[in-house]
Amino acid sequence: MGRLRRLVPRTFQGRLTLAFVAILALTLSLVTVGVLDRLGDYFDQQQREDLTARSLGVAQYVALVAESASTVRPVVGTDNVVDPGVVVQLTRSTQQRILADRLAKADVLIRLGTLTGGTFMEASGGEFRALLQAGALVGQTREPITSDTIYYTVNGTLVPYVVEVTLSNPYTYRATALATTTGLLAVIGLIALAVSISAGATLARRITVPIRRLTEASRGLAEGDLARRVPDDPGQWGSTELIELATQFNTMADRVQESVEIIRHDRDRSRDFLADVSHELRTPIAALRTFNELLRERAGEDPTARTEFLEASGVQLERLDWLAQNLLELSRLDSGLVLLDLRPDDLRSTVEQAVEQAEPAARRRGIDLAVHLPEHPLRIQHDPVRIGQVVANLVGNAIKFTPRGGHIGVAVGPAPEGVKIVVTDTGVGIDAAELPHIFERFYRGTRASEARGSGSGLGLAIVRSIVEMHGGTVGVESRLNAGSTFTVLLPRDPRRANGTNPGHPVGGDPIMAETSSSATLKMNPDTAP
Ligand code: ADP
What's the whole-number mean pLDDT along residues 47-61? Predict the structure, then answer.
């Protein structure tokens, strides 16, 4: 069995071809055996009928010869003895040649006798044999068959008698016909075999070539060549199943490439994020260490210096705390662990409260802060604390980047798809080249250092995350030295805008849920009242 298995080709093409050939060979053998067997039977049957027909002729001829030979006695006497004259006549070689070579064309056995009660009684001296001696015609051979025995009754004489004739071993074309048929079948078989081998190989190639292409593309993918695809030209694939397979393979490869790119991008972002966080933490920690060292030295004895350093340390601690809170919030928002506490509240009060909190800072910095609210309530499904945070961050930035005497306007109103919150300032503005980056984490514009107070580049990233969790968008328009306008568009119901799971822009079930009330954010110490 094992040896047999080793003989079977290992390639698909080889196996398919072998299967084709095996099936064909089996079919042809069965057909050949069946045809030859039936043909042999048919010949035998024909020959036997033919011999029997000739037997009658032989019997009639024997009767004629016997009649003419028996002049004195009946052919078969009442004593059941054949007339010697008849015996002489029938044993003559000329008569035997006529009987065997001309009439019967076979070996002849003749018995003369009588019928008694339906049974043949051979007469004494009544058996004659004539063997076939004539040469065969082209294609003829002797066939070992025997005819049915016939009984020819002769009644017109004094004593009725019976001629029994049996013919055997005639010349036939049976062997030649069978040999010709076998040869013909063999030629047909060989042609069919050749056709089946080439058809099997062609068919197998039509399947194996695409499979090989798929294998090569898969290997390319596995080795990291994510751009590897199979050609999806239908002409190269043949059947619809294989075209479908190629299309599915390419779709799968597209998805794999997309996912890997997302993972790579996330990995790069996480790496950058970690580097930025470390960098951000170092500044306040270094300042704190310096103050601490100074206080431990001489400055600690000077009450004025001590108060100053302690206050400065407090500001840095506040900043560290703010940074930690914002980092935590941002990573929670991004990881999708936060669920929004959606309520159908009036957006006007959410915005009003956030603006009110920023008013003292604006006043202190000599900036006019005005809020424009519509007369009618704007009830939309939103998380009031987090939308409040959005407004606070935008207004905080506006205060930070607007010089004394400037104006800040906060307006709320309906929009085609929901509502909009617009925060406008007459501040320093943002360079066009920086605009695409300002919502990135830790991105700080080149003019950020000119502005009062310093930022960490997290405020707008948080704004964008919260707005996107609400299924909304945030955009900005700005001109340098003229001012900026931030526009937040929110849908009426984030559940309909986002799908079923607000708070998860990427999708997936929350592992942890937390209501926003416990995640109240601190204001940026730079702009806090
Ligand atoms: P930061 O804490 O530095 O303010 P943000 O994420 O809030 O961080 O803002 C990122 C950058 O976007 C800022 O450094 C600043 O360059 C720019 N920016 C944001 N808001 C304004 C504004 N109202 N006017 C001018 N520039 C702004």
Answer: 92
Angle at the Cα of 489 from the Cα atoms of 363 and 508, rounded to 5 degrees: 115
Those residues whose C-beta lies under 8 Å from the C-beta of residue 181, and which sit 6 or more positions away, are: 35, 36, 39
Report the separation in Å between the CA atom of 430 and the middle of ligand 1, taken as the mean of its atom positions.
Answer: 8
For a ligand 1 pocket test, name from 399, 430, 467, 524 the mutation site with the most ligand atoms within 8 angstroms of its C-beta: 430
Q: Report pLDDT digits (tens) over 107-128.
A: 999 999 988 888 899 999 899 9
Over range 362-379, report the average pLDDT.
95
Distance between Cα 445 and ligand 1 center (Å) = 6
Q: Please provide the DSSP assignment of 376-419 as one string.
A: S--B--B-HHHHHHHHHHHHHHHHHTS-TT-EEEEEEEEETTEE
Structure tokens that stand for 346 in this block = 């009036």
Q: Return the amino acid letter for 252.
A: M
pLDDT of residue 331: 81
CA 446 to ligand 1 center in whole angstroms = 10
Nearest residue (by CA) to ligand 1, atom 25, is 429
Q: What strands, in cross-sheet order, belong to the sheet with 161-168?
A: 119-130, 107-116, 161-168, 150-154
225-271: pLDDT as tens digits: 999 999 877 777 778 888 888 899 999 999 999 999 989 988 887 78
CA of 452 relative to ligand 1 center, distance in Å: 12
Q: Within a 10 A sphere around the Cβ of 218, how many other Cβ atoms?
A: 15
> Around Cβ 464, how many Cβ atoms within 10 Å?
20
Q: Are 387 and 426 in contact (CB under 8 A)?
A: no
Q: Is 397 in the pocket of ligand 1 (CB under 6 A)?
A: yes
Domains defined along the chain, listed by start: 9-179 (no CATH), 236-337 (1.10.287.130), 339-527 (3.30.565.10)
For the CA of 443, the closest atom of ligand 1 is: 10
First to last CA, the chain: 90
Q: How far is the CA of 450 from the centre of ligand 1 (A)?
A: 12
CA of 276 relative to ligand 1 center, distance in Å:
16
The residue whose C-alpha atom lies closest to atom 23 belonging to ligand 1 is 398
Contact 488, 424 (CB under 8 A): no
Residue range 166-171: average pLDDT? 94
State if residue 459 touches ligand 1 by the CB under 6 angstroms criterion: yes
